[in-house]
Amino acid sequence: MIQTPDIQRPSKELIEGLAHIGSATAAGDLSKLGIRDAHIRGPRPFTPGKAVCGPALTLQMMPKREDQYSVGEYSDPEVQLHRHVLYHTQPGDIVVVDARNDLGSGIFGDMMLTYFKGKGGAGVVINGCIRDYPKAQKLGIGLWLEGTTPNFHTQTNLFPYAVNIPIGINNCLVMPGDIIIADDDGVVVVPISLAEQLLERGREHAEWEDFSRERLMQGGELRRYYPLSDEARPEYEEWKKAHGR
Asked: What is the mean pLDDT of residues 45-62?
């Protein structure tokens, strides 16, 4: 029987807090914490308007080679490791797949993604494709992909090689259990070691941006309100009190 490792998940409170930050704020504040570029290039939103935040389950795909992969698609489904990454799904999890930018292999299809949805999965990030997109887009999970294809996962060039190991997606490292923040701006990887600091920074950032956005909409000066200047800070503190923050 195949055994694959699970991930260590952060607290729900941490995930819920980071979910309100958004990928743009996360990327900007992570740069101030020493992570120069946390954006996963390539995968783009295929479910516009969807935003997710959760820990990463990882799947590594590799090029097919006959001595390593020679099993027919359904001769023994349990050999297929793309099933096993989904077996670990807990509510709020996000599956992140290194599919090597291959546009001819559908890593998951409708049935696999339906299972993922049923287990409470929140989103899928792949530098590659899924199949059955017309059905998958209706499941309510977030999809960040490079494309779609009618081909199944091992039909052409790839096969699933490892579950919940460190993977690299377009020069971005993803560790199992890292927190993924994904929305219409893109996908950002939050190292678990920096998640608490990001939450603290992100909350403050989002709060003063709410204030500044309000003032800018009223015709306020850009120099005063973005970024928030020292001169505007007393006004911001009064605004917080008035809004019970």
From this structure: 98
Q: Tokens 């993922």 belong to which residue?
A: 116
In a domain, 6, yes or no: no
104 part of a folded domain:
yes
Q: Same domain for 131 and 233?
A: no
Give the model confidence (pLDDT) of 209-235 as tens digits.
999 999 999 999 999 999 999 999 999
157: in domain: yes
Count of domains for the chain:
2
pLDDT in tens, 158-169: 999 999 999 999
CA-nearest of 14, 206, 19, 203 to 122 is 19
pTM above the 0.70 mark? yes
At 61, give phi and psi (nearest 5°).
Answer: -100, 150
